[in-house]
Structures are given as structure tokens and as C-alpha cells.
């Protein structure tokens, strides 16, 4: 069935928020799926009208908690390693977090359907607080790693449930603007994260970071109780696909471990095995009547499948920039770690600026931006491969800005197409699968980039002899992913919003 014709009758979603928070008035599903072109651009004021402002604040808070936690934690990890004598376990902190993140994201729609969106968001916030508390109170590296895994699971639920909330609580005409605002939160976190983390690390108070985010997790849980309507609950027909989740967990775990493994043969085996497990997870999931991913979403022959694959490949292509460009800028351009981090953060700034600039575009331009975005990502990935090894700071900044702008131009419109393709029953799963596709692509892209960079000698440190091969390996490995994302985006754009099959 098509996005514009997905329901044979109009059904009403009661969205009464009640109390001092106001209320979102009853919204028809048809209006949520297909905006009326005669109305034109609804504007920012309409986005905040009818009680939507508090709920928008809630989803922005959730995005902030996850984004800031991941970026601040990366900054304080040297302090954690010194305090807990756990330098050898650095990679496992990131690997465990990523594994929990992807698996929980994939299961977030099941959780929302099982216990209701409000209860699921409260559980995610409370779980995040518990994970942060475990890391904050950890006497040794073992409990710290356990806390990071719990944080990853809870963060995955938060992100996945945000997509579910957007699909349920906001009309589709507002989604490009909402996604642009979510992107701006990540941009703010990119700039604020290293600064906040550095302040805590310099003060010898790294544990305070996790207590701070534990409090924010509890705030998210409380706000979810106050703002999310209880009427967005429950469906018992969707059972948890345990076998697919186990394969997904093993696959992401293998890919994440491949990215931190010094042995090149072992890393290659883990990457190949992880990819095979992801394919197996898709196959097992497609065999179920109600899997994690909508059945057509796993098939590139369908436009909806092209949307998920475009997300997967785009993220895989862009991962290496944030992982390897800072080290190369420190070596070649003589920047400090903080300076290099902020130079690379221009990608996030460009992403935010582009997303906000095009958020009010008409339907014809949205289809164009769906293609122009991946084209810019491809051009930026190629440019980064050439300019980073030379240490040209303006060149790296420009290429990073082009990469970020590509994501900003297309991401919200691809998400809008995906969410608009489903009726009430399929919208939670379809929307939460967006984040799962992106995070899985990021895991694969990081693993491939790590294998290529280490094969060029990155594991032994950067030198004048190996910096160019490392750049070609780390960034050049993303070019095929970027090219594939462009092909999938072209197919999605040609299909048009009314022909994305769900």
C-alpha cells in the first residue's frame, strides 16, 4: 500500500496531553501521512502550536542526553583509564556501547508496542540513569564497562523511541523541521561535549560527568511521564524476534570489535563474520510476519528498502572522518587535540545549517535534496581522501563541511518518506528502524575504515611515510559506500512520496 493511500478509512489518534502542558488536538492519520500541498509551508509557528512545544522539548532532551553523553565520554576516557587502570579496555567501552545501542534501537518499537510509548520512554530514561550511575560508582574497569553497555542499550531505546514519538505525535508536514532541530542538538553537543568533558577531566572529577547524565536521564523519564499521552499504548501482536536480535547483536559486536583489533587478519575475519551475521539477521527477520524491519525495508527492489539502504551506506561512508581526521590534523597541521576536534566539528555545524536551511522546502525540492545530499557526501568523501594527508586545514574543513552539508540536505526528507509510508500499525517499527539502519552502517563503516587504516600502518602511529596510505585507506574505503548511497537515493527520489511501498 502507498503512503498516501495507506488507510481505507480515516482513524483518529487521540493525543490529549492534558493538564498544564496543554494538549495536542486529535489528528487524523491521513493528515499525518500526507500534507496538503494547498497549505504550503506550515512554518515554525505551526510546529509549536496546539501543545506540540512541550513534546518537542522532550524529544530534543532525549537527543541531547544521548549525543552529549557519547561525546563527553570520549573526551574523559583517558582520565577513566588512568583512574581505573583500564587503558587496555578503551576499545571495549566503545564496542559494548555500540552493540547495546544498535540492538536496543532495533527493539524499541517492540518495547513501545508491548508496554506503551510513555512507559517505554520512562524505562529508557531510568535505564540510562542506572547505566550512568554504574559507571560513576565503578571501583574498577569491569563495572564501568557494564555501565557503558547498559547506557548503550538505554540510549538505543531513547533514540528509537524518539523516532516512534515523532511518527505518532507530529503530523508529517512538520517532520523536516523537527529532524533539523534534532540535528542542531547534535551540532551543539559536538561543540559543547569536548569542552564539558575537558573541564571535568582537568578537575579530576570524571565521575561527575556520569552523575550529571544520570540526573538528565531521570529528567527524561519524568518528562515522558508528564508529556507523553498514555493513549499511545499497546499492541500485543508484535512478539520480540529473539533470534534476529541475537544475530544482530553478534554481528554488531563482531564489527565493533574488528574496529579495535590490532591484528589485521583477525579484524578482517571479524568484519566479514559480522557482515555475514547482519545479512543472516535480515534473512531471519524477513521470514517472520512481524519482524524488526518491515519486510519490504530489507529488499532494495522496493523504494522503502532503498531508503534504509541509503541511510546505511551514507553513515558507513561518513564514519571515518570523525575517527581519523583529528589524529591526522594533529600530526600534519600541528593542531592540539581540542583544536583538531573543533576543526572536524565543522561537519556537524554544516549538517545543522543545511538541515535548517532546507527544512521548509516544497515537495519538488525535497526529491532533489534526497539526491543532492548523497551526491555531496560522495564528493566530500573523495575530497577528504585527497586533502587530509596533505594537512591542509582549509581543505579538510571545506571537505568536512561538504560532507556534513550532504547529510543535512537529505536526512530529514528521507526520514519523512519512510515514516509517511506506513499506517498506524507499521509506523512505530518503520520509524525506529531508521536509527538501527544508520547505526549498523556506522559500525560497518568504522570496521572497514579501521582495517584499511591499520593495513596502511596506522596502528604503529602516523609518520610522513604512512600518512598518505592511511588517508587513502581510512577515507577511500568510504567512497564505495557513498556511491552506493547515491544510487539508492536516486531510486527513492524517482519513486516519489506516494510510491514508497510499505
Summarize the structure.
With 502 residues, the protein is mainly α.
Describe the structure.
The chain has helices at residues 29-33, 43-48, 52-84, 90-115, 117-137, 141-169, 175-202, 206-227, 242-258, 264-286, 303-332, 337-344, 346-358, 363-387, 393-420, 427-455, 467-476, 479-495; strands at residues 12-13, 27-28. It has 18 helices and two strands. 74% of the residues lie in helices and 1% in strands. Helix 4 packs antiparallel against helix 5 (117-137) and helix 9 (242-258) packs antiparallel against helix 10 (264-286). It is mainly α. The model is unreliable at 1-40 (pLDDT under 50). The longest helix is centred in the first third of the chain and has 33 residues, at 52-84. The chain folds into two domains: 48-173 and 185-235, Up-down Bundle (Growth Hormone, Chain: A); 295-502, Up-down Bundle (Growth Hormone, Chain: A), CATH 1.20.1250.20. The protein is globular and about 60 Å long. A two-stranded antiparallel ribbon has the order 1-2.
Amino acid at each position: 500500500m502507498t503512503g498516501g493511500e495507506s488507510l481505507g478509512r480515516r482513524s483518529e489518534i487521540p493525543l490529549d496531553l492534558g493538564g498544564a502542558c496543554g494538549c495536542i488536538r486529535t489528528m487524523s492519520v491521513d493528515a499525518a501521512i500526507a500534507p496538503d500541498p494547498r497549505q504550503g509551508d506550515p512554518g515554525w509557528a505551526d510546529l509549536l502550536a496546539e501543545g506540540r512545544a512541550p513534546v518537542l522539548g522532550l524529544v530534543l532532551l532525549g537527543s541531547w542526553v544521548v549525543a552529549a553523553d557519547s561525546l563527553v565520554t570520549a573526551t574523559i576516557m583517558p582520565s577513566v583509564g588512568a583512574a581505573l587502570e583500564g587503558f587496555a579496555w578503551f576499545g571495549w567501552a566503545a564496542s559494548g556501547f555500540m552493540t547495546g545501542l544498535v540492538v536496543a534501537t532495533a527493539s524499541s518499537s517492540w518495547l513501545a508496542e508491548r508496554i506503551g510509548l510513555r512507559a517505554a520512554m520512562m524505562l529508557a530514561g531510568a535505564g540510562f540513569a542506572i547505566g550512568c550511575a554504574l559507571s560513576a560508582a565503578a571501583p574498577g574497569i569491569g563495572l564501568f564497562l557494564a555501565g557503558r553497555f547498559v547506557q548503550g542499550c538505554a540510549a538505543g531505546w531513547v533514540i528509537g523511541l524518539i523516532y516512534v514519538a515523532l511518527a505518532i505525535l507530529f503530523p508529517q508536514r512538520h517532520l523536516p523541521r523537527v529532524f533539523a532541530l534534532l540535528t542542531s542538538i547534535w551540532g551543539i553537543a559536538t561543540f559543547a561535549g569536548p569542552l564539558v568533558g575537558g573541564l571535568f577531566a582537568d578537575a579530576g572529577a570524571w565521575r561527575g560527568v556520569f552523575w550529571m547524565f544520570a540526573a538528565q536521564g531521570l529528567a527524561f523519564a519524568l518528562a515522558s511521564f508528564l508529556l507523553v499521552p498514555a493513549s499511545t499504548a499497546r499492541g500485543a501482536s508484535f512478539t520480540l524476534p529473539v533470534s534476529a536480535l541475537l544475530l544482530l547483536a553478534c554481528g554488531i559486536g563482531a564489527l565493533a570489535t574488528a574496529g579495535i583489533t590490532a591484528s589485521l587478519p583477525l579484524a578482517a575475519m571479524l568484519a566479514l563474520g559480522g557482515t555475514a551475521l547482519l545479512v543472516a539477521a535480515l534473512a531471519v527477520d524477513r521470514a517472520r510476519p512481524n519482524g524488526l524491519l518491515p519486510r519490504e525495508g530489507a529488499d532494495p527492489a522496493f523504494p522503502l528498502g532503498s531508503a534504509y539502504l541509503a541511510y546505511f551506506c551514507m553513515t558507513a561512508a561518513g564514519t571515518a572522518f570523525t575517527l581519523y581526521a583529528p589524529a591526522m590534523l594533529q600530526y600534519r597541521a600541528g593542531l592540539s587535540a581540542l583544536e583538531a576536534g573543533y576543526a572536524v566539528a565543522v561537519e556537524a555545524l554544516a549538517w545543522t545549517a543545511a538541515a535548517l536551511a532546507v527544512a521548509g522546502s516544497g515537495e519538488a525540492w525535497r526529491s532533489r535534496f534526497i539526491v543532492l545530499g548523497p551526491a555531496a557526501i560522495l564528493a566530500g568523501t573523495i575530497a577528504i581522501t585527497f586533502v587530509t594527508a596533505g594537512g591542509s586545514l582549509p581543505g579538510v574543513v571545506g571537505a568536512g563541511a561538504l560532507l556534513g552539508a550532504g547529510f543535512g540536505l537529505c536526512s530529514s526528507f528521507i526520514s519523512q518518506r519512510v515514516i509517511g509510508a506506513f499506517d498506524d500499525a507499521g509506523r512505530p517499527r518503520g520509524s525506529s528502524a531508521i536509527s538501527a539502519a544508520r547505526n549498523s552502517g556506522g559500525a560497518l563503516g568504522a570496521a572497514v575504515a579501521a582495517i584499511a587504516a591499520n593495513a596502511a600502518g596506522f596502528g604503529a602511529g602516523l609518520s610522513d611515510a604512512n600518512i598518505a596510505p592511511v588517508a587513502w585507506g581510512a577515507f577511500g574505503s568510504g567512497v564505495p559506500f557513498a556511491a552506493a548511497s547515491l544510487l539508492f537515493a536516486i531510486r527513492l527520489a524517482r519513486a516519489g512520496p506516494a510510491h514508497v511501498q510499505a
